[in-house]
Amino acid sequence: MVCEVQYGGRITDALDRELMSCYTSLWINENCFQPNYNFMASVTDFAYTLPDAQEHPKYMEYINEMPGTDNPPIFGLHPNADLTFSLKDSIGMINTMLDTQPKDGGGGGGLSR
Q1: Which residue in 4, 20, 24, 42 is deepest, having the highest Cβ count within 10 Å?
Q2: pTM for the whole thing?
């Protein structure tokens, strides 16, 4: 339901819908209701669990403890995916900087009329 109803109108590509369906089947299932269920036990830098709390501030505290950037394995990707993304991002930034540099005018340097 989450994949098809919530995101169905926003995902227009068939492969993106298939990927979203895969993620939701891995992340949202009956195991989520087990106590101390860890969504991705192979990721050791942060425990992706459901907080055992009833109060809103406890959930906010848990959310604020989450890492600013997630490791690729949390999405089922190889750890080198982060390296590939960073490399592509860096090349894009350098190309943008080169494109925005002032260009030489090509003037002759002689006297003008």
Answers
A1: 20
A2: 0.53
